[in-house]
Design brief:
Layout lengths: L5 E9 L6 H9 L6 E2 L3 H5 L6 E2 L12 H5 L3 H16 L10 E6 L5 H14 L8 H5 L3 H10 L4 E5 L5 H14 L5 E8 L4 H9 L29 E9 H6 L6 E10 L12 H13 L7 E5 L8 H13 L8 E2 L2 H4 L6 H15 L1 E2 L21 E2 L6 E8 L3 E8 L2
Parallel strand pairs: 4-5, 4-6, 9-10, 9-13
Antiparallel strand pairs: 1-7, 1-8, 2-3, 6-7, 8-14, 11-12, 13-14
Helix pairs in contact: 4-7, 8-14, 11-12
């Protein structure tokens, strides 16, 4: 495979803390939280034990034209909003359709469409089920609709690797461009699964924080009193292209995507390996592809979901790669602000990592009351300055099923 340099030329996001990428970044740096009490009748009707989440701050159906929004599940709506922003930010590259690809991810897919259709079937019968139900609920709906919208014919792939999904999509895009299959790829992920069934299911497995009285402080990665993650919603997109293609058209460049590693734990369907073998291997693979050593890494965006078990397991994995130096690398756990977007989280955090390199600022990790001695990352409630000069950062994503994905970015 070629070692051609691949760069990020456009970003877009619709997140719990902002309706655009710049708004999300500014809110993150300001220490905002996107978590709030859910003001829906179905919360009380279903007697949900967890009554809050971090929903997308701007509803996508208020941004898209009504006829377009009606034919899309909320997950695909969010994907289209973020992708349109990223494409415009990239300068709407002039690229042949056969050289433009889409690599998009989701962890769950169109759960709202699926379960709304089930309610319609039970209450009103099969004739009232919408003809567009399957095209709206299928996991590849976002990738397919983005391919249609932008005229991408090189390929349109969907990744569904739980919470590692959209980091895998970024890595796929990197590999496809290097392999010569595309010049430009729209990569990212989306999730809209703040739904009674998902909240009830995650609560049943004791995965969610139960801080109903204080949603905005519930997600607290690295804090000794963390008690679970906060369900998030949103989408994020990175436009990737070969540096040659980007420079030929005079595009601005945010950062380079220099490496990626994807592995599997083969340990447990929901729990990650406590010794972190698979996660550590993914980090090493990303650095090997980047032709870099662990000593070069200057920033880490940790997966850090705020679960009692997951945070220390991630620390152990990184400790095995970086040694005690991991305690000195400025680290951000941005789910403290955004909650956990499941299949969309890797793309959002990848975007934050790119902006951290561009702005030379590691975002704050809010809500730490007392840092857990078993998770001694270099976390701060304020921004941490990154030094000038060449910067190398990694963004980690780990998911149910034992999926591990790590992407490496380098400053430009």
């Amino acid at each position: 495979m070629s070692t051609a340099r691949i760069v990020v030329t456009g970003i877009g996001a619709s997140s719990p803390i902002g309706g655009t990428a710049p708004e999300s970044w500014s809110a993150l740096l300001a220490g905002a939280s996107g978590a709030a009490t859910l003001e829906y009748d179905w919360v009380e009707q279903n007697q949900l034990p967890v009554t809050f989440a971090a929903e997308a701050l701007v509803r996508p159906d208020t941004v898209l034209d009504r006829p377009v929004a009606k034919r899309l599940d909320p997950a695909s709506q969010l994907a289209l909003v973020a992708a349109k922003e990223a494409w415009e930010d990239a300068g709407a590259p002039d690229v042949e359709p056969e050289r433009l690809g889409v690599d998009f991810a989701t962890g769950i897919g169109g759960v709202w469409t699926l379960l709304d259709a089930w309610d319609t079937l039970r209450e009103k019968g099969p004739r009232r089920v919408m003809p567009m139900t399957v095209p709206m609920l299928m996991p590849n709906a976002a990738a397919g609709n983005l391919s249609l919208h932008f005229g991408a014919r090189a390929y349109a792939r969907t990744v569904a690797s739980a919470c590692a999904s959209s980091t895998e999509s970024i890595i796929n895009a990197l590999e496809h461009i290097r392999a010569g299959y595309a010049d430009v790829v729209i990569a990212g992920g989306t999730e809209s699964a703040v739904h009674p069934i998902t909240l009830a299911a995650f609560a049943s497995m004791q995965a969610l924080s139960k801080r109903n009285d204080s949603p905005e402080t519930a997600s607290r990665p690295g804090s000794i009193d963390r008690d679970g993650f906060v369900m998030g919603e949103g989408a994020a997109v990175l436009v990737l292209e070969s540096e040659e293609h980007a420079r030929a058209r005079g595009a601005k460049i945010y950062a380079s995507v220099v490496g990626g590693g994807v592995t599997a734990d083969s340990y447990h369907i929901t729990a990650n390996d406590p010794e972190g073998h698979g996660a550590a291997l993914a980090v090493r693979m990303a650095l090997e592809m980047a032709d870099a050593s662990p000593d070069e890494v200057t920033h880490v965006n940790a997966h850090a979901t705020s679960t009692p078990v997951g945070d220390p397991n991630e620390y152990q994995a990184l400790l095995s790669v970086f040694g005690d130096r991991i305690r000195d690398i400025p680290t951000s756990a941005t789910k403290a602000s955004t909650g956990h977007l499941l299949g969309g989280t890797g793309a959002l955090e990848g975007m934050f990592t790119v902006l951290a390199l561009r702005e030379r600022l590691a975002p704050p990790t809010i809500n730490i009351t007392e840092q857990d001695p078993e998770v001694p990352f270099l976390l701060s409630g304020s921004t941490q300055e990154l030094s000038s000069g060449d910067q190398l950062a990694i963004s980690n994503s780990f998911g149910f099923g034992g999926h591990n994905a790590v992407v490496a970015f380098r400053s430009v």
